[in-house]
Amino acid sequence: MKAREPDTIAGIPLTPESGLILRCVRHYSGRDERTRIARQLQGRLDWDALLRLAEAHKILPILHAVLKESHWREVPESVLETMKRKHAANFAGNLLLSYELIRILEALGSRGIRCLVFKGPTLAVAAYGSIAMRRFQDLDLLVRRNDFLKTKDLLREIGYQPALRLPEAYEKHFYLTRSEHHFVRNDGKATVDLHWGLSPPCFSFFQDLDRLWPRSVTVAIEGATVRAPGMEDLLLFLCRHGAKHRWEGLSLISDVAVLIAAHRAMDWPGVLARAKRTNSTVMLALGLRLAAELAGAEVPENIGDWMRADRKGEVLAGKVIRSLFSSEERPTVDVADRLNLFHMRTMSRFTDRLHEIVLNLFTPTSIELSLIRLPARLYFLYYPCRLLRLAVRSVLNKALRTPRRQTPDRTGARRTSGSDKP
């Protein structure tokens, strides 16, 4: 699929800063954009806005690498110094997390606990070739469900605490009815997202360690060998992850494009077969379309034909592009945020959409658990409590006429007013 030229996207005029960002992402993904980038650098640019945009989309390492490669003469010295400083700070943080990952994996290995690492440093190395080239702020670990409580106890032993403190009577029920939980190191310098599934088990696209381990690969992280999902499984995960988060930043799209460019021997029939088996074909088609149209990803011709035939993916891609680059102020619907309607539209099965509604409306969060403390035997009452709290909040929001709004600045980076917590 031919990538759209970054002057207008879906009929939306791009700022010079947005156009330059897109060209840099495309260049890093394997397209030769040097001539176009050089031409654009000769025009008028708001360098402060450009840096804000790159940070908002979490792609400052890409911008720095591309401009430093062959365009440094056209970039103001102060801008180069700012990018260099921020790049060094990002690398230092990533290095700290990488060594922390090695420490955690050694502790897990000593207890015989298998673990896969996804996103974070493994994605940075597998796709970008270096931990310095991707911004990450936490570590994502996948263990067996039966090992989850043991891993939680081990993390506590080596200096971590759950981000959500619960009475002991709640813990087992709360942890094992969710597939992801957050832990923070005692000094606050590292965060671990511990998973026993890549989605709640009620979804048809649920994947756990036992399903992924036979296809896993090894990735070298700072001299250590780390187990990560196979590249085909990782690609599917990135497309599901992007759909879950409404593809809210260019870094999510860049991850897909750069991974494809780095692994030309991708088993595409295997990717399609797994997408069909896990009812995630719309998520895959949407992710590939965005990577091709915005980041210049190159996919085999038959995959491109299949991707273009997905009309739902075409409509959703238009929504993503408008949300990323439109300069119009748009209200954010509170109910849509709660239900994540965008994510639901990428689901192929009605039962998955129903589970999404139930999870978002009824599954208790830290807010419900902190508002009232019920005896463990009455834990089930937290489910209607959450629905009641959301209903009261919705009524109050309407009565006070304080809807949240998202206002893009001139760079396309969105500013949100009001609370976005559930």
Automatic annotation (TrEMBL):
Cross-referenced InterPro entries: NT_sf, NTP_transf_5
One Pfam family here: NTP_transf_5
Transmembrane portions of the chain: none
Span list, region Disordered: 401-422
Domain of life from the UniProt record: Bacteria
Coiled coil (UniProt feature): none
Bias type Basic and acidic residues, positions: 406-422
Designated name of the protein: Nucleotidyltransferase family protein
Species of origin: Syntrophobacter fumaroxidans (strain DSM 10017 / MPOB)
